[in-house]
Every structure is written in C-alpha cells, then in structure tokens.
Amino acid sequence: MSILKINNLTFRYKHKFIFDNFNLEIEPGSWVTIAGPNGSGKTTLVKILAGLEKSYANITIFNKPLNKKNMHEIRSNIGFVFDNPDNFFACETVLDELAFSLENLGVYPETIKKKIKEVSSLLKIDDLLNENPYDLSGGEKQKAALACALMLEPRILILDEAFLMIDVNEREVILKTLKEYNRKKRVTIISFTHNLDESIYSDRLIILNNGIITIDGSFPEVFCEERVMRKIGLEVPFAIELSEKLKVYNLIDDLELDLERLVSLIWK
Ligand code: ADP
Predict the structure, then answer these.
(1) Is 98 helix (H, G, I), strand (E, B) or coil?
(2) Rounded to the nearest whole angstrom, what is the distance from the C-alpha of residue 173 to the centroid of ligand 1?
C-alpha cells in the first residue's frame, strides 16, 4: 500500500499548464528521487503537497485525502526542507530553532534536549547550536533546516533542492547519513533535485520533464536512458559516464554511480 498517492493532478499558473493528469505513487520506507531540469515542475509539486498551492487532484497521504480537514494532521507528519532556508528561521539561535516546534507541542524540556543532541550529532551541527541562523553560510542553513525537519521524526521527509548550498564532500556524508536514517527509522524520503549525483542512495529515480514523468525505475533502468536525460538537459554523473565506457570494454558488469565503489571494482 502506498504512503502517498497522486491521482489525476492538474495544475496551471494562469494559462500555463504545469501538470495535466499527473499520477504518482510512493511506497512507504522508500527513498525516491524526483529529478528534473529547471522549470520541470518540482517546486510546484512540493508546494501542492505542502498545501501552499491549490490543485485539482486526488491526493492521498497516510491513507487520508489531502484536504482542509486533514491538512494539519498530515503536515505534522511530514518534514519539508525547501531550497532557500532564508525565510525559514524565526529564532535567535539554532538551538532555539530546533527546540521551537517540539516546545509548541508541549514536549518535556528534557526530551527536547535529548532530541537536539541526537539530531545535531547526526548531522554534525553541534558547533552551530549557539549561532544565529541568519549568520550561517548557505550550506549551514540548509543543514540546520534539515535538522529542524528531523526533530519532529516525520514519517515522510520531502526535500526540495535541500543540498544545493552544501559543498560536495559534506553533501556526500549527509546523503549517507540520511540513507542510514531512512533504513533505521523507515522514514520515506522524497527528494526533488536537478542534480543526479544526489540520487546515489535512492531506491527509485523518477525523471520529470515539463510536468511529465519521462523515466521511472531503479538505477540501472533509469541510467540506461542517459541519452534521454542529456536531451532534457540533465547532467549525467561522471561515475555513470566512466562506468559506461568501462562496460564497453567488459571491465565491469553494471553501471555504477558511486565513484568509490567504481574504483574498488576496477581494482579487483
Ligand atoms: P522547478 O522546481 O522544476 O524548477 P517550478 O515548479 O519552479 O519548476 O516551475 C515550473 C514552471 O512554472 C516554470 O515554467 C516556472 O516558470 C513556472 N512558475 C513557477 N512559479 C510560478 C508562479 N508563481 N507564477 C507563474 N509561473 C510560475
């Protein structure tokens, strides 16, 4: 049974249709990456799921229709992280920001303290706790926003270009951490990005172009269609390009997105 189901979504800005009869189902506990070039409709879809844009659709989340009546309950079980956290923070320190939502729910201070410790050490932001969120770098702000989303232990985590400002090496560590979190806590992750490198740990990859799902499948299935990806303007990750060439010479059997694994395969 799916944890999120979109049936026959139609949405337009004035006269421009962004989605027309769009359908999607997400399995619970999976990590799904929805990748597409700029303008493909990613942020619009996130806004629709957050109830920030009104659409004609039959959307069910946690088996409940996404409507005015259920919105609050559904939203409180989803962690959203948007691309630009600049308007997101309301407190003077990252610590207060992390505590904010749980305090509003009346959670015991001791429990909040414990949770802050757990989340900040998971994302390695302990040294940022006493900083003003607005003094942080873009990448640090994105990590703090992600930490805020995790504080509530959401059943679904929806990420919209949430790693855009985090540098490559750190992003790799965070993606790995999130994969472990996804496995351990069975949280469903839906990440929207234009950068295919970020899809490395997802179970399913969906390529979106002009509001249409162009490709949908597991890694090998999707990356076999790399010509389609190039055509719509998505950059194919270096590891995929390299492994394609190595495959031609029978040096490896399958396409590999993880550069580290690729190197160990070659050295075997
Ligand atoms: P993505 O996140 O994939 O870059 P968006 O969902 O932001 O795509 O945008 C999809 C299309 O909708 C784009 O052509 C964009 O110009 C248009 N669009 C986005 N927001 C608005 C808006 N508020 N009013 C009119 N058009 C918009």
Answers:
(1) helix
(2) 30
pLDDT digits (tens, 9 = 90+) for 197-215: 899 899 999 999 999 999 9
Let me know the angle formed at the C-alpha of 110 by 105 and 111, rounded to the nearest 5 degrees: 55
Residue 161: active-site member: yes
- pLDDT means per 10 residues in the chain (268 residues)? 95 93 97 96 96 89 94 94 86 95 91 96 96 94 96 96 92 94 96 92 94 90 82 85 85 81 80
Tokens representing residue 240 in the block? 């995929």
Instruction: Assess whether the C-beta atom of 42 lies below 6 angstroms from ligand 1.
Output: yes
Centre of ligand 1 to C-alpha 24, Å, is: 19
Find the angle CA(252)-CA(256)-CA(258) to the nearest 5 degrees.
130
- Helix (H) or strand (E) segment spanning residue 33: strand 31-35
Rg, Å, the chain Cα set: 19
Ramachandran sector of residue 218 (left: φ over 0; alpha: ψ -120 to 50; beta: rest): beta
Condensed to tens digits (0 to 9), the pLDDT of residues 113-126 reads 999 999 999 999 99
Q: What is the pTM (predicted TM-score) of this model?
A: 0.92
For the chain, the residue count is: 268
| DSSP percent split of the chain into helix, strand, coil, nearest 5 | 45, 25, 35
Q: To test the ligand 1 pocket, which listed residue (18, 48, 232) has its Cβ within 8 A of the most ligand atoms?
A: 18
Q: Give the C-alpha separation, 91 to 98, whole Å.
A: 9
Nearest CA to ligand 1 atom 13: 39
Cβ of 36 less than 6 Å from ligand 1: yes
